[in-house]
Specification:
The chain is an all-alpha fold. It is built from four helices and no strands. It has a single domain, classed as Serine Threonine Protein Phosphatase 5, Tetratricopeptide repeat, CATH 1.25.40.
Length: 101
């Protein structure tokens, strides 16, 4: 049946959505408390979750926020490079989606 999902895929989608909500809440709370490193970590993992779900625009935005916060926290170049690579990967996938879609 079109539009239906198996119990496993529905469970995975629900888990992905729940993880996204939890990470967004964690990031917002950490930013509110000015826990910059924790907020950067939460944004990065929110981006990874979005990327794995195929939401490359959200992934890109989350990675960019992580980069901003990591810079603010004085992260090492290697840590920043990892985030820059994640942004590039999300941008490539996003562009591919836009061209195909």
């Amino acid at each position: 049946m079109p539009g239906c999902c198996t119990p496993r895929s529905c469970s995975t989608a629900a888990h992905t959505h729940a993880a996204a909500q939890e990470l967004a809440t964690c990031a917002a709370e950490a930013e509110g408390q000015r826990w910059v490193s924790i907020a950067a970590f939460a944004h990065h993992h929110h981006g990874k979750n979005a990327y794995e779900a195929g939401d490359y625009e959200t992934a890109r935005e989350s990675f960019k926020q992580s980069l901003f916060l990591r810079r603010e926290a004085g992260a090492q170049d290697g840590e920043l490079e990892t985030v820059l690579l994640a942004i590039e990967a999300a941008e490539r996938r996003r562009t591919t989606q836009l061209v195909a879609g």
